[in-house]
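Researcher: We plan to redesign the surface later, but first we want a full-length starting point. Tokens attached.
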């Protein structure tokens, strides 16, 4: 039977309005299945039983509970529900009746995919009761244990392959390796971005294989619902009309480099064939991409040259997979079958817990009871698998790639001419006579300076990364046509451009027009940062580096653009730029890159950080309805299972994995892009949920850092459509567009590395540094940020801080101090930042115990002397500054160097060097 036939039977086995009336839900399930022309839903009960056993904490017989609250799956948060339940049923029934009409003539795979992807969105569009609409995506599957939604339950139930007295499933884990090194090997921002996109894209190629054979719900992590690449797949490969699909979203990599799936088979050969097919498809995609790119660029290679090129591509990427079947022979897996992965003590405790479930539970446990053990064993298996790496040592003698430094140069530009190097040693190290037959010239019109800079040499893989958008334009979407990722200079001067559009539009347009007419280089027309696209079109936007006067030289224009410039032409450009500067302040040549990473994600996925078991249950059920002895023994058994921390925490289930996946998807798709690209001057490189990479203009840096951090924990709200930090939101849900979105909740934290650098700083150095800063934040205790200022004149400033200091946001403190040190403030008073160096000199030789008692007094004295402005209200202004500075000092470890570096960084954002 095809996956979609089983999917429909299992999906309609439970109605989405189940919690409103548990007693009559089976009849409503039949009614809803009937109007969607789905029969045989009783066959879905076997998958439902396994899914239910996985998802619902143990319950004794006879416990009933009306729907009155939703519990957050990953924290102690909850939301009360007070609506009239019968009215809710009536509205859902009416809406489903109306929606079902559009499915009347659909069948098979098309119908299943349409229901999976569109049904929730269609329901939300048609529900008239705004309060009911809010709750629809988070309606619980069980009112007694309301910590997982009916949608998550249906996802798991449709993924599980089960029939009467038989289940046939395996847990499968796939990952692509060498992620950080591949992404960080970049000289241009487009290299950096495309490295992330390629890994996301190739992982999705593997995911496609699972979707084709077992359906989209087989992927437990990440959640595919509303993922841009999945929507593109449904639109382009399945010809479906997808609700709320934005093609531009495809350009943002959101698929992580690994996935977990429930595979509907325990046949080792079938699983192996599946994995081999993934590997083949990925490598075939890479070969097809390279062939297509060469063809589009007019590059014709001999068989020998193709062999060299493909050899350089053959080791990429590293692919690993493991699977654990849920059956051993003719029987379901038992606890003892996993003893090779755990200590005897752990196995014994699980046996005892299983006996308790058999004795006291509402229903006898099935294979779903072992999900946590199976997943833990799966992760341990992956660790072993990665230690068995296949190394293919291929030493190449010759000049190495300018980007990765690992493989030999194949593509090179010399004296303005792009070349293919067929013999590396002869071309770079041979005599003049030997060089003649060691290369051939490429089409200079097609191999632009955007692709290959002067004296730049690229290997096959880095050339593929540099030109991959050529393939994406043909294979994915025309949105990649002439695709350009903003340069560091473009990010740095974005606030300058925003101001110029508002205050000097005529001068701005004149300079751009003259420059483009003069150079006749179409690729200099680039997309502005997303926030500016409404007012600044690509056709009128000149690449950012040409707004810095230092670049208007004969040498620079010759080197970057390959053209000669007359003295008169150069003089005209300088005059026009100076005219623009007179209207708007010169751009600051610095930008920021940030890397956010969720803390302890491995522990979240393993269930180690889940909340106490009581927070899985409805408050009334736990407080009043569960027998005392049952609760006590349940907690005791769970404490015994937790050999390390001895907490009575929840058991890991696929619904938990689904909840984590949903929360991270919501973060990446609903919040991150809005924060970075819609509300602020930034550009996302990658947003995979638990990690985010982005370029940000300095003006907006602290606000972007702040919003990204607290949105990760769901501690935000929306005001007039904009994200506002709300530390007091502890529910774990965020109301956006009148719909509750699940988040990771307040127990989840994240760390961030930030680097401020000059736009001319080699990008590889900046990327390596931001990874280092992220690591420093983690090593300092997590739930922190580490920020580094790389001065173009030399030297670094590094500050590390927790996100909160005495219930104050650290970023808000820094933002205030930055503003008060800004000489260009509208309010004509400021604190000169000269006091920072004076303070550092005075205290750097003293120990903390010595200056601990005098730091506040000396800080106030130095700040008062650094005050500039009217004398009226001086005391209040100084006092305000000092109080914030004191909080920063005492809240960041009482380290004078760390404190003064943070102050310097804040001041630097105002004015640069």
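Model: Full-length starting sequence:
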């Amino acid at each position: 039977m095809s996956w979609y036939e089983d999917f429909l039977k299992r999906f309609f086995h439970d109605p989405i309005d189940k919690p409103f009336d548990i007693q009559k839900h089976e009849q409503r399930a039949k009614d809803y299945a009937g109007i969607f022309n789905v029969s045989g839903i009783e066959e879905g009960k076997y998958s439902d039983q396994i899914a239910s056993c996985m998802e619902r904490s143990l319950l004794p017989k006879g416990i009933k509970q009306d729907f009155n609250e939703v519990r957050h799956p990953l924290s102690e948060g909850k939301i009360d529900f007070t609506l009239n339940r019968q009215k809710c049923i009536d509205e859902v029934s009416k809406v489903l009746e109306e929606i079902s009409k559009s499915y009347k003539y659909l069948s098979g795979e098309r119908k299943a995919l349409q229901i999976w992807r569109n049904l929730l969105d269609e329901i939300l569009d048609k529900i008239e009761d705004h309060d009911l609409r809010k709750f629809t995506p988070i309606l619980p599957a069980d009112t007694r244990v309301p910590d997982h939604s009916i949608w998550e339950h249906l996802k798991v139930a449709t993924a599980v392959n089960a029939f009467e007295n038989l289940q046939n499933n395996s847990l499968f884990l796939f990952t692509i390796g060498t992620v950080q090194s591949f992404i960080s090997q970049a000289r241009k921002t487009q290299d950096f971005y495309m490295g992330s996109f390629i890994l996301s894209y190739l992982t999705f190629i593997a995911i496609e294989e699972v979707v084709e054979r077992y359906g989209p719900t087989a992927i437990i992590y990440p959640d595919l619902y509303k993922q841009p690449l999945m929507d593109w797949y449904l639109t382009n490969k399945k010809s479906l009309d997808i609700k709320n699909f934005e093609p531009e979203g495809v350009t943002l990599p959101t698929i992580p480099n690994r996935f977990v799936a429930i595979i509907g088979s325990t046949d080792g050969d079938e699983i192996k064939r599946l994995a081999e097919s993934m590997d083949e498809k990925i490598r075939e995609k890479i070969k097809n991409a390279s062939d297509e790119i060469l063809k589009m660029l007019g590059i014709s290679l001999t068989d020998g040259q193709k062999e060299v090129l493909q050899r350089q591509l053959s080791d990429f990427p590293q692919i690993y997979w493991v699977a654990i079947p849920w059956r051993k022979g003719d029987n379901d897996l038992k606890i003892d079958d996993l003893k090779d992965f755990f200590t005897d003590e752990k196995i014994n405790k699980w046996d005892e817990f299983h006996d308790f479930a058999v004795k006291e539970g509402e229903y006898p446990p099935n294979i779903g009871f072992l999900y946590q053990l199976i997943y833990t064993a799966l992760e341990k298996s992956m660790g072993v698998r990665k230690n068995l790496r296949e190394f293919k040592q291929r030493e190449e003698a010759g000049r190495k790639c300018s980007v990765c430094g690992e493989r030999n140069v194949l593509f090179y530009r010399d004296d303005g001419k792009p070349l293919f190097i067929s013999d590396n040693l002869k071309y770079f190290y041979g005599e003049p006579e030997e060089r003649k037959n060691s290369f051939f010239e490429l089409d200079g019109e097609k191999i632009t300076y955007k692709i290959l800079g002067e004296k730049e040499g690229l290997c096959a893989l880095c050339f593929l990364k540099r030109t991959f958008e050529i393939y994406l334009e043909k294979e994915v979407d025309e949105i990649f046509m002439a695709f350009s990722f903003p340069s560091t200079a473009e990010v740095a001067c974005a606030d300058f451009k925003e101001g110029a559009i508002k205050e000097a539009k005529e001068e701005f347009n004149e300079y751009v027009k003259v420059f483009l007419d003069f150079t006749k280089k179409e690729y200099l027309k680039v997309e502005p940062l997303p926030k500016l696209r409404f007012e600044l079109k690509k056709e009128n936007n000149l690449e950012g580096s040409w707004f810095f006067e230092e670049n208007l030289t004969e040498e620079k224009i010759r080197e970057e653009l390959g053209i000669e410039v007359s003295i008169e032409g150069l003089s005209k450009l300088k005059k026009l730029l100076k005219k623009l500067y007179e209207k708007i302040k010169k751009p600051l040549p610095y930008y920021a890159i940030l890397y956010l990473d969720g803390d302890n994600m491995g522990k979240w996925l393993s269930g180690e950080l889940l909340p106490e078991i009581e927070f899985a249950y409805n408050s009334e059920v736990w407080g009043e309805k569960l027998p005392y002895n049952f609760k006590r023994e349940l907690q005791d058994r769970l404490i015994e299972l937790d050999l390390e921390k001895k907490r009575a925490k929840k058991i890991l289930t696929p619904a938990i994995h689904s909840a984590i996946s949903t929360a991270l998807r919501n973060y990446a798709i609903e919040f991150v892009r809005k924060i970075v690209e819609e509300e602020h001057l930034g550009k996302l490189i990658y947003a995979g949920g638990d990690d985010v990479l982005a370029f940000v203009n300095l003006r907006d840096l602290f606000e972007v850092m702040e919003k990204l951090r607290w949105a990760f924990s769901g501690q935000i709200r929306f005001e007039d459509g904009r994200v506002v930090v709300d530390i007091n939101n502890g529910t774990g849900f965020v109301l956006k567009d009148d719909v509750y979105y699940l988040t990771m909740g307040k127990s989840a934290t994240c760390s961030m590395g930030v680097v401020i650098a000059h736009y001319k700083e080699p990008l590889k150095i900046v990327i390596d540094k931001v990874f280092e800063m992220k690591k420093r934040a983690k090593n300092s205790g997590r739930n922190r940020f580490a920020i580094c200022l790389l001065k173009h004149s030399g030297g670094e400033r590094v500050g590390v801080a927790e996100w909160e200091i005495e219930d104050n946001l650290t970023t808000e403190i820094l933002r205030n101090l930055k503003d008060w040190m800004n000489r260009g403030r509208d309010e004509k008073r400021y604190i000169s930042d000269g006091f920072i160096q004076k303070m550092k000199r005075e205290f750097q030789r003293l120990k903390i115990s010595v200056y601990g008692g005098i730091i506040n007094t000396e800080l106030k004295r130095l700040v008062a002397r650094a005050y500039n402005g009217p004398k009226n209200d001086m005391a209040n202004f100084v006092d305000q500054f000092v109080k914030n500075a004191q909080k920063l000092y005492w809240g960041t470890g009482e380290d004078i160097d760390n404190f003064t570096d943070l102050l310097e960084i804040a001041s630097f954002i105002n004015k640069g060097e």
